Amino acid sequence: MNRGWRAVICVGMLAVAGAAQAEERWDTALTGPITVRTRTLEGTSVKEVWAETELGVSVADVQAALTEPERLPAFLPHLKEAYTVKRRGPNVEWVYNYVEPPLVGARDYVTEVTLLEGVKDDGSGRFHQRWRAVEGVQPERAGALRIKLNEGSWLVTPLPDGRCKVVYRLKLDPGGWVPAFITQMATVQAVPDTLRAVEREAQRRAEARLLTRAVRAPRPGAP
Q1: What angle do CA 162, 168, 173 make, to 5 degrees?
Q2: Does domain 28-212 have CATH number 3.30.530.20?
Q3: What value does the mean pLDDT take over residues 152-177?
Q4: Of the chain's two ends, which shows fewer C-beta atoms within 10 Å, N or C?
């Protein structure tokens, strides 16, 4: 084997080892029906969160729940206001969010939300959405601290019997001074609360759809 190929192989092995070490940096914060892992972004105190669970709802209903910004405050914890500021085509929109989390004070932010993959007309397929905080879209709100770092994604894939698997990822710097115990609480409690809230909203939408179908269905013997 010549030196060139040896060098290529060595670089490849180092890359694989580096990737493995990066994955090993995850710390498990919660196990059970919902698994939550965290790791600190290199050179910062910011936590990246990775959560996975299975929900007893369809991908289509989860997608419907998460792609109607004005409805989000009705079921997501601590979110008091959300609305679309502007759009770019069918798959990109900028959404303003105002939150009042406990103990740390009000925050606001604008995210660029991109639909990377959506379910087909028949409800099959995956839902993949990504967002990142952006500046210069909406003025900062008086009395609220503007969040500068908020990046994440939803990846929802179908399972048998109308269920789905959800992978939720988040990088968030809430800004200001936030005690470590609150950050830990947000990881262990707020993330599962968010996933459960999404499931309840998806269930609500599924039930409403079935009720609508039942009401519209023709009655036996009706003219």
Answers
A1: 160
A2: yes
A3: 94
A4: C
